[in-house]
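new request in #modeling-help
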Amino acid sequence: MAGAPTSLHMGAAAQRRLRRRYAREFRFKAVSLGALGLMALFLVGFIGGIVAKGWSGFVTTEIRLDVTYSERHVDAGDPAGGGFRPIVVEALRKVIPEATERDDMRALLGLVSNGGFVAVRDAVAEDPSLVGKAVEIWVPAASDIDMLVKGHVDRGLPEDRRRTDDRTIGFVDRLEAAGDIRATFNWDFFTTGDSREPELAGIGGAVLGSFWMLLVTFLVSFPTGVAAAVFLEEFAPRKKWVDVIEVNINNLAAVPSIVFGLLGLAVFLNVMHLPRSAPVVGGLTLALMTLPTIVIATRAALKGVPPSIREAALGLGASPAQVVSHHVLPLALPRLLTGAIVGMAQALGESAPLLMIGMVAFIVDLPSGPMDAATALPVQIYLWADSPERGFVEKTSAAIVVLLAFLVAMNGVAVYLRQRFEIRW
Amino acid sequence: MVATTEAAPAGTARTAAYEDAVTIAVEDLPKLDAPVKMRTRGLKLWYGDKQALTGINLDIPLNRVTAFIGPSGCGKTTLLKCLNRMNDTIDTVRIEGRVGLDGADINDRSVDVVQLRARVGMVFQKPNPFPKSVYDNVAYGPRIHGLAGNRAELDAIVERSLRRAGLWDEVSGRLDGVATGLSGGQQQRLCIARTIAVSPEVILMDEPCSALDPISTARIEELIDELRENYTIVIVTHNLQQAARVSQYTAFFHLGRLIEVDGTAEVFQSPRHAMTEDYITGRFG
């Protein structure tokens, strides 16, 4: 290469510069990749932990009872008024005949959940012809038994340090050996309301409460938010007061949710006297919280519609309202809905404002409308997490799984809408 | 302020002439071989504090093609948008002076802007069909103005418009297809068909071929020549050959002033103003 013109970009110095550049690039990429890996690790750890703890919450332990509705205990004229504790004890004695002492009796009764006695009663109340006959019924086990069967009780501990004594464990083992204990999928978990007994507690009431609440939130915040955004984006003159409103809407989006809860408490409960603990109040409160999110999302969606479409319609003699309703809004709809769904998902996961308006109560009945007292999914999780019983630990995780499933589903719908219907320019 | 000084042969003296040039006075307007369809008198326009038009006097003849030429930022598109009040949508715009359509001031309170835009249609620089079907694009204008009493009439308007825009043979089989799936040239002809469908009297075209390939451009130019029989056309273009090919009158603008306006042949062959000559010969702009 002697005699060749030397280039600034050749030679040892240039090579060094190049190597340094590549090294820097490599470090930059490595750091980003590391951050991503860390995030993935968190995610896997979080979801994995919740699911691992929660899956057993979807399974419940049942005990088989060979129930004989003898006329001694049940009157055919009033089958629901019978004495069902002796019937259950008799049924269990068929497997464990030697349990005759008072302590044995108490242990036997402790095996079955309160819901079990109700199930035994309901069976004969529904069909009084059963009186005098024998039937086989699977009834839910008491929470302690459920925990024992699922292996959450350490049998190696001294007896006085566990909730189940040796006698009970012995009975359970006998029943298990006889095939009278099974684990089944807990469908009731999805259809029942809260309960003091972990084995009977369900997420159904909270899901319904959340549903009614989100319905109110959507009906209030979506039309209001979209209309406000359309005005600000399409019609508002560039004036000072519009700027002031804009800034305030953006600030509103950053206000802590508990403040909205206080506002809801002050306005909806204390001034308007709406029912306490009702989804309608929760919904209105969350609507206030979601409104700025929807306004901002809608404005972004409207901004995404190219001005050339507005010009085209205006140039044909469309009025400004026609331009918006015929062209801009329909074109913005996919992105707008996506934003709204994300806002709704946020509202679904919100608990702090609901604590302020009393949706944190212990409510067994399923709400049949937005005016009934109810709780919501995140609040139910909070309530259960606060309960001392071991049985509520897995219920808490199971409820979190349900909440996450709803959130994933909502975000999935948002992604689908965006992918499927959005027009790219 | 002026684009290039090196290219101007007479140097600074000539540049000074550029700066001193004044917008054409009413009495200097050329004699037209057709009645006046639109007319501006003393038209001034500001974007906020910045003045974009400095008292434009211009007559636009009926059933002729008038081309607006000039370097970027000279105000030709701004003036075009004044002719159907598209500048209304910009908050900061302030307008003084008169714009007449058949002798009536279009900025008058009594004029309905929706009606005005039906009479003075517009075709834009970038083809901007609605992301709807070909049919719905053309039918949109007649629909909002209530021009068709029934579906059959609307069908007829759509077909007539597409035929006039020379697009019917290409799209008659796929009227329900999405308009954005057409080629760029087809899209622009669709936009012209959409404008024609409203039966305007004047069609404003803002660089209608700048986003198109030469073949599509040639088709649009042919189309403009055909449309002249029934419509008054004003076209803004950066393509001087195009102005020479399609227009009967040419107006040359510079820095918000109308420097020269005359028959296209006169402007291109014997420009009166040195600045016009420099621009059309490529010395500046």
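bot summary: The longest strand of chain B covers residues 36-47.
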